[in-house]
DNA sequence: AATGAATGAGAGTTCATTCAT
DNA sequence: AATGAATGAACTCTCATTCAT
């Protein structure tokens, strides 16, 4: 049951009534996000960010004391983008397998339709190994994701949808790593990374429904 | 002056008598590699590379016309490091499962003992999405790896070590993505990424030997 | 927020009911004065001045069209501070020597207790060599001081308290220079600059009462 | 015996064979010195310094890591200028009064002919109150000067050229302050500051040769 | 083969100032 | 009377690159 169709419409996170300067701040963050996606941190220039947001550098510095602060803003923005997408429009009452496939499907869709997110996330991961502040946020975000997933897995095992001997923690790790790995791979070989057979194999692994090797 | 994290002995595998300047070139590349691992591309300064290799920037430019050339050197060096490690001491005649586990094991060991490689690889992947030259090399390297792995998988299926219905291509992709994903994860949470249960689950998936879920 | 080093009471001598915004103006000037004393002209930032006065830069510019105007305010404030102190509590009918010593004593006291004044004055003198407006004001202030002093000296010569052959003009110059010099010196070596023997020697010089060198 | 003989043979700072880049360094320092004299620290711009020395800012930074380093260079240069000038062409065997007058005369000459030195010195004094490094150097320089002068005074008292009851330490302080004060004054009123009668009065004070005030 | 000296082209950041409200 | 937001112009400092030696 592939069918992981998720309605995109309700994804606008920002509320209508934001404190006055907040809009501009977000515009700047969004501009920075786009530029990081396009050129990486290496190619990120405050002047470009500012002009893409329709202001001057001085204005950028009015909102973000330093470039580092701006980057932290991008960090938060990106993580939020991820989180929101994941849990927001949750069709209740799915069976665990369907739910899991839906989640993985969303990621796949994102990889195909909004690869910038992953490019930025890759850059941020790169930074995380040097910047503790970023590392902490990413860890936290990962931790929430793991919780989500392991609950589903646990439920699946209980409901006998997944294998009885499935190691939930390890499986969670695998799914996390797989997701990250596919996003890396999609940078190099999107064709391979997004092959649907991959999902089929994942399903087999989790459910154990297949022809076992005999010896 | 952190010594290059990789023993020198392994790294001049082919030629014993290098042309005059070749040594210095490699020293520079190694220095650049170390610095990228420490500070990322963002923090890579030709001056630092040169001084770590014991020469001046001017000398660096004698060996590498531009910084970009140097980076290509690092690219080659890193890929080589990867390849070498993989196939170097290959105990012949292993059964496919053991062979596969050995390969994955080497990666794990590298993640634990020489994480710089992955940090650099992450940086390079980041670049690959923008630099076609790098992308090409990484693709080529990946392609070789895939060939290696799928051969083993195919052999395993034939020998009935692995599941009969294992989709070799998809499984290869999964293993590649998993490996990449674990290296990303190990930057954030090495404890989780290197959990041995993960390998156990992978084995179950490939072999199909476990208690299937009933319905 | 270091309080201005000078008591407020003395400083609004003339008008008791100041026009509406006058108070804020003075608060700004005082803040600027303090900051110049602390960091010099080099380190004077309108933003800091404003925030120390409890307003924003925009407000500062409402009161002082440009930074230069503000500085002129500080100039006037400082000179006034000097003048006031000098003549304010004048015990009438002192004999010239006592009067002179009193005046010099006040300066000494200021150097010890309110060195900021001299630091600012030094900065202003520095500026005077480039800014004619400031130069003019300082000259005027000096001219008044000279008049004061030379009257006392003249009276002293007449009353035979000072030497008969004292060159009043030259002596006035010397006393002015000495005072300035001591304030400079007190920045480097307050201990030496404020040595009381200095005053004794000055007295000997003016009165001629001492053991002359014989030949 | 005068004994204040300090062989200054070794004071020629720039030897004919300077280490290669040393010349450019000095040229930059000299340019900075000139600009400080003209515009004060406030108006000191690295670009201007560089271009006056015939190089670009980048080159300036090649020689002086930061602006602060450059300023320290100016400091040393200025102090050296002072020290050298003082003792350089020393007609041996003068009597103390003549010697002292000569020294004061040199200063006067400098004030008239090379007022920049004093302008810079004034700026530096201003800084000294905030920058310990500069303060230390200026103190040291002052200390040497005091030693010089007090030796002459002592000799003068011994030889009965100066008053028997002259307080040498206090007189040294007075002469130092007077010199500083005159340089300040000369910025405002060169005419008055350089009046020769001032020197006459100083002489009277030191020698005590005049008509004392009777009572 | 190697370097000291020099530089053009920017980078991030600062600051006095303006203006609509 | 007071301010938040915005900016132009400039500032110090950096960096990959060049070139005569």
Describe the structure.
The structure is a homotetramer of 215-residue chains. Chain A has 215 residues and is mostly helical. Chain A has a domain at 90-207: Tetracycline Repressor, domain 2. Helices cover 69% and strands 0% of the residues of chain A. Chain A is built from ten helices and no strands. Chain A has helices at 22-39, 46-52, 57-63, 67-87, 96-113, 115-128, 132-158, 168-188, 190-193, 196-207. Chains in contact: A-B, C-D. The interface between C and D is large, with 62 and 63 residues.
Question: What secondary-structure arrangement, pairings included, does this model have?
Answer:
Four copies of one chain form a homotetramer.
Chain A: H1 22-39, H2 46-52, H3 57-63, H4 67-87, H5 96-113, H6 115-128, H7 132-158, H8 168-188, H9 190-193, H10 196-207
Chain A binds a DNA duplex (21 and 21 nucleotides) through residues 20-21, 24, 45-47, 55-59, 61-63, 65-67.
Keywords:
homotetramer; 215 residues; Tetracycline Repressor, domain 2; mainly alpha; DNA-binding
Short description, anyone?
With 215 residues, chain A is mostly helical.
Unreliable spans of chain A are 1-17
What Rg of chain A, in angstroms, do the CA atoms define?
20 Å
CATH architecture of the domain at 90-207 in chain A: Orthogonal Bundle
CATH topology of the domain at 90-207 in chain A: Tetracycline Repressor, domain 2
SS class of chain A: mainly alpha
Q: What assembly state would you assign to the polypeptide chains in this entry?
A: homotetramer
Specify the overall morphology of chain A.
Answer: elongated
Please write the CATH class name of the domain at 90-207 in chain A. Answer: Mainly Alpha
